[in-house]
Amino acid sequence: MERVNRILLHPWYCYILQEIDEWERDRKFCGHGSAHLLDTARLAYLLDLEEDKGIPKELVYAAALLHDIGRAEQYKKGTPHEEAGIGIALEILGECGFDEEECEVIRYAIASHRSRKLAARGPLADLIYRADKKSRSCFFCPVEPECDRKAEKKNRTLTD
């Protein structure tokens, strides 16, 4: 997990997470900060283990920790965060020791994490997509009735 720890300590990564926290300071709905990123990483890794997919833990964690890194740019410029995050993620990944093939797999997971159809085309992308959705604890949320997520996408029960 050495390279994942490099991501967590990367100055640009830390700066962008602070930006996202600032943009979402008054947000009453689900946020996209470090807690969400770690929840997504842990759930994705559990899914990987349960389903015996064999995806390296560092790739799972790297993709999960970077999947929403484009949020700050989305808030500033309106660029969809899955698009905005790709360039940022690739630069951070390269500086943290990930090779081109690993970067491509992670890039695809970030680019497709909002589309079930696209995510289904890649094992890591599929894990990140599902873990991202499962990370939301709608059953504990005091503002869930006000949330505009579609009812079928809300996590109101624990599932397999």
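The above is record 1. Record 2 follows with the same two-line structure.
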Amino acid sequence: MNAGAGLPLALLAAFSAALVAQAPTDIPRIWDDAALADWATPVAGLNVRPSHYSSAEYYSVPGDNLRTYPIYHPGSEPAGYWEELNKKRPEPLVDASKIRSREDWIAAGERAFREVDNLWSRTDDPALIAQARDPRSFEGVFRLPDGTSFGPRWVVTAEGVRLSSPACSACHFTVREDGTVAVATPKGPRPPGSPQLIPRGIGVVAAGAPLAMQRFYAGDPRPTATWRMWTVPWAPDERIESRRDASDRELQELVGGDPGVFNRPHGSPFYATKIPDLQILRYSRYVDATGTHRLRGPEDAGRYAAFITGADPMDFGPHRILTDAQRRVRFRYADEVLYAIGMYLMSLEPPKNPNPAAADVLARGEQIFRREGCVNCHVPPTYTSGRLTLAQDWQPPTNHPNRDDIATVSVGTDPGLALKTRKGTGFYKIPSLRGVWYRPRLLHDASVTSLEEMFDVARLSPDYEPKGWNPPGVTRRAVPGHTFGLSLNAEDRSALLAFVRSL
């Protein structure tokens, strides 16, 4: 029956207006002292939480909320486009005055995730802007179906047009076979012979490029800035400490070539962290492979976006990583931008496998999944318990603040990231298996490239050659941990993997 049947039109209209009025249009305060108090997980080597800027420090600078615009390939740029850009006044990327519902927030967040730019990369350098307007920069470069390039963006500021790069979609994207780009997806290798992604000469504006590092680590030469990203004062790694005065060639050797990882601050080039699949974020209680911060809702997702883009004092108990000049809030995104991104990310759902195995095979695979105990950690329907497993040979203190989420088991994963970096909480979070069928990299460090490799007992051998990420200078090593299912016969293993790929 029609829910509105029998209601006068005027009353029905008033009822609909009331529902709209109740839609969540307020902008939550992202950097909230009470929420920050128990947000971070203590660092295992210190048993203290990393420090955060206070809300007073954070809100002492204005929030940035600027719309960005695409860069077109030569011959595809609409007539008068560049001239119109230079006449424009700044516009908000997220206009909260137009948001009336949850769906509006999600739509605004999707756009913001795609288009928000990295302030540390924003530049008015005439030479770089000219490079981005030079047809020669685009020869043989990837081109989207609408004629735009992937990556760098124009930003209209109060001081004029600036060149910049994406903040979120620069890492979280996949180039599809049809030439489009999907965002918030796990990043994997592009097919051999694929065109260059970023127009020539302007990769310098990318996040993590020398320009951005020079600005965030103000006053540091590049080797010192790189050392500051990864040094662990309470557990120094000589491989990092010895490169404080490294040459550009030596620094490049640390970066690595696997597209599935990105050596962000607090990590290590020797203990990698995979670029995550954000389409399963909603199934997590924590962010980062080592569960560095709680994930209690879209505010925490936005809060983490703020944290990794600059709102990070890098203080760990008595250890201060940054200089006095570097350790201050110099930039922040407006709360409406961060909340919209959080709402978008928490709305995502991984796509289902369009070609699952036959029903009888899936039924057999599910039986094995339950028989082998996989269901104890990867609990349906999210296929994760959301809990934290112990790094090998580590036990948390009995009064650990996250104790209710700790599973008192270790699956034997290499403990380097969880114990020897500034991301080292002593834990690895249990990931969701939803959407695992399409992920190009598995395990926290992207060592494994397929479920077949994951369930191959050969990976436990020190002579094994992993098909995914390897530490600098390493080609042969064991990929330890998660030995569940390695003893299955071929038929059972095939059924189990078919079931997992259907999730």
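Confidence is low (pLDDT under 50) at residues 1-23.
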